[in-house]
Design a protein that fits this description.
The complex is a heterodimer of chains A (193) and B (466).
Chain A lengths: L15 E10 L2 H13 L5 E4 L7 H5 L6 H27 L12 H27 L23 E6 L7 H9 L5 E8 L2
Antiparallel strand pairs in A: 1-3, 1-4, 2-3
Chain B lengths: L3 H4 L9 H4 L1 H22 L1 H32 L5 H11 L2 H17 L6 H6 L17 H9 L2 H7 L1 H6 L1 H10 L3 H18 L1 H32 L4 H28 L11 H26 L9 H32 L2 H9 L5 H20 L2 H5 L1 H23 L13 H25 L10 H5 L6
Helix pairs in contact in B: 3-4, 3-21, 4-5, 4-6, 4-14, 4-15, 4-20, 4-21, 6-13, 8-11, 13-14, 14-15, 15-16, 15-20, 16-18, 18-20
The chains are: A alpha+beta (193), B mainly alpha (466).
């Protein structure tokens, strides 16, 4: 720890609690088979970590289709309706004004702006919806406590099951993961702040 | 599956619907169309010119859409479209049929029996004016239609006897050009364009487009089918390198063919984005046909899964993108003209908002954009092959309506939906039937996927996670 210790922080011996199980596999096939087992056991708060996208892993994990399309569509529709209301209010109701000899609030002149509003809000919906679904920004995750996890960007395949999962049990979850024959299995702990 | 690709020949089974019945159905439709077309030509040769142009150009856009998809896939060198590429190659290889089908159009308009391009030819001087002499066989003939299509000022200046012959001809001409200023402007525009639109130059350009398309289609089809046999990997970079120049040629010929054949029906009117709109519609039409063929192959397991839901999903998304693109360019063109509100420019859209064509326009807005947009936007809708099949059929019909909207409102001044729509359909059946007969024979003759392409294995395992 830092060399200028302050007087306030007394419990310097970090107290730790279990955060997740991390199982390591050597091959993509092994991790996909293990993922099917974890999926069938009914876990929800778990994930796979692979150095590159594995085709078919989504199905093996039983991931539901993403909701980002629905979020984008609803946001786009809001942009469309909101833009229409704004133009009609400003240009037709509050301060009717004739531009280019066209009647106030005429529909064709609205279309480019409606298009822009739809695109803008769809973009916002997609970006922020994605960040929300991915739980980003996330500054740290207990999985980084594991020294072995760095290999997830190199040549190893991992499955992590988090304590947050309602089915998580220190012994049962360990037994499940051991039954998938991982090359290494560890209980990753996080510091209690 | 990758290893299978060398053992299976991916040919159409001799007893399948596509190999035995489909082309006969198509040929029968062409025969019906031919009978109807002859009747239409005998009834009113001038009006039938528009029918034939509509039928011919609708089919031409399908071939051009196929050519675009082949070229763009070689250019981008993606692996997703390798297995479905052969579908488009076979449609592209129908280019010689297009060239043949163009001959009646060129001959008809050069001989003066089709009067649709006469407005600028008359302006160009008496050299091309003998067309009225050919008009004896049909009632009124060239004299009548030149008076119909010509601006009043032009008509009186160049051909007083023709305008005087037909009482209604003069009033149509007046409806075309409202004020003396407009007539002068009208005339000046035509004069400025007359060199470009002069008959012999026009027909030379038309032939050049057809030769360019036949050449591109021939080269790409031969390279690809030769690769089937030789498995020569070097043909792939060869096709890719050639695709850059070919796509330039393709883009320019498509644009100018649209200008020369369709836009010049209203010679005093011009729009630089015209060719782009035709291009967008072509891509939709061909992607709809391609999806229908791919769904048929998939449902009857004719490619053993080589063309499957993943590839069809890609095609349908591309089609959805082009629906938005088509709408974007169509609307842009319309809005600029609407905003300016200049009679010379608005006349083209005015024709499409009168005499029943307002319903065709509305059909396009809702049937070509609004409904397909919401009915194809979701991944679930595009993944449902039964649903996609119906949407593709619908979009193909809409593509035909789109070209009808481009061509046929020019037939009368003021524009009027008429009973000759039956001959429009006959011409469409004739051209479409002839084209599809040739194409369907092609499906039976060649492997259904490019079996020699080095990217085939990756394409077979193509998988979409999104």
């Amino acid at each position: 720890m830092s060399d200028h210790e302050t007087t306030k922080k007394e419990p310097k011996v970090a107290e730790k609690r279990p955060a997740l199980y991390l199982a390591e596999y050597e091959t993509p096939n092994a991790v996909a088979k293990a993922a099917m087992k974890v999926r069938d056991a009914g876990y929800k708060s778990w994930d796979c970590h692979t150095p590159y996208p594995l085709h078919g892993l989504d199905e093996a994990m039983g991931l539901a289709p993403t909701k980002i399309g629905v979020i984008s569509f609803v946001c786009g529709l809001m942009g469309l309706i909101g833009g229409a209301l704004l133009i009609q209010y400003a240009n037709n109701w509050d301060y009717p004004i004739i531009i280019g000899g066209k009647p106030p609030g005429s529909f064709p002149s609205m279309v480019p702006i409606l298009f822009e509003c739809t695109v803008l809000l769809t973009g916002f919906g997609t970006l922020f919806g994605m960040l929300h679904l991915l739980k980003l920004p996330m500054h740290n995750h207990p999985i980084f406590e594991s020294d072995r996890f760095a290999a997830a960007t190199d040549d190893k395949y991992f499955i992590s099951i988090e304590v947050a999962d309602s089915k998580f049990d220190l012994t049962k979850t360990r037994a499940l993961l051991e039954s998938t024959n991982p090359s290494h299995l560890e209980l990753v702990q996080e510091e209690v702040l | 599956m990758a290893t299978d690709s060398n053992q299976q020949d991916y040919r159409l089974p001799a007893n399948s619907f596509l190999a035995t019945t489909a082309w006969k159905v198509s040929a029968a439709l062409a025969a019906v169309g031919l009978v109807g077309s002859i009747a239409g030509y005998a009834a009113d040769a001038n009006r039938f010119g528009y029918s034939y142009l509509f039928g011919f150009f609708a089919v031409t856009t399908l071939m051009l859409g196929a050519m675009f998809l082949v070229l763009i896939q070689h250019m981008t060198a993606g692996h997703w479209g390798v297995t479905s590429r052969r579908i488009f190659e076979v449609f592209m290889a129908g280019a010689p049929v297009i060239a043949l089908l163009a001959l009646p159009l060129l001959a008809g308009s050069m001989s003066g029996r089709f009067g649709m391009y006469d407005e600028w030819r008359l302006v160009n001087g008496p050299g091309n004016h003998e067309s009225s002499g050919h008009g004896e066989d049909d009632h009124g003939g060239a004299a009548e239609h030149s008076a119909l299509t010509i601006g009043a000022g032009v008509a009186h200046a160049q051909e007083p006897e023709a305008a005087a012959d037909e009482g209604h001809g003069a009033e149509h001409g007046e409806a075309h050009a409202h004020t003396p200023q407009e007539q002068r402007l009208h005339h000046r525009t035509l004069q400025a364009k007359s060199g470009w639109l002069e008959s012999s130059v026009w027909v030379f350009r038309s032939l050049a487009y057809l030769v360019a398309w036949c050449l591109i289609a021939f080269l790409y089809f031969r390279w690809s089918t030769r690769q089937d046999e030789t498995k020569d990997k070097m043909l792939t970079p060869k096709m890719q390198n050639a695709s850059y120049l070919s796509s330039f040629v393709f883009g320019l010929t498509l644009t100018f063919a649209a200008f020369d054949w369709v836009m010049s029906l209203e010679p005093a009117w011009y729009s630089t984005i015209f060719g782009v709109i035709i291009f967008g519609g072509s891509a939709i039409g061909m992607l709809a046909v391609g999806c229908l063929v791919a769904i048929h192959l998939h449902k009857h397991n004719l490619t053993h899964g080589a063309v499957n839901g993943e590839h069809i999903n890609d095609l349908s998304r591309l089609m959805f993108g082009f629906i938005c693109f088509w709408t974007y360019v169509q609307f842009s063109q319309w809005m600029l003209i609407w905003y300016a509100g200049i009679p010379e420019e608005a006349t083209w859209f005015h024709r499409r908002w009168q005499g029943g064509f307002e319903w065709v326009t509305l059909t396009l807005i809702f049937g070509h954009f609004v409904a397909p947009f919401f009915l194809l936007i979701s991944r679930v809708q595009k993944r449902n092959l039964g649903w996609l099949q119906k949407m593709c059929l619908w979009l193909l019909v809409m593509h035909v309506v789109d070209l009808y909207w481009f061509v046929v409102p020019q037939a009368h001044t003021p524009a009027q939906l008429d009973a000759a729509v039956i001959y429009d359909l006959a011409a469409l059946l004739l051209c479409g039937g002839a084209f599809f007969t040739f194409v369907l024979k092609g499906f039976a003759r060649f492997p259904l996927i490019p079996v020699g392409d080095p990217r085939l294995s990756r394409s077979l395992h193509h998988h979409q996670t999104y």
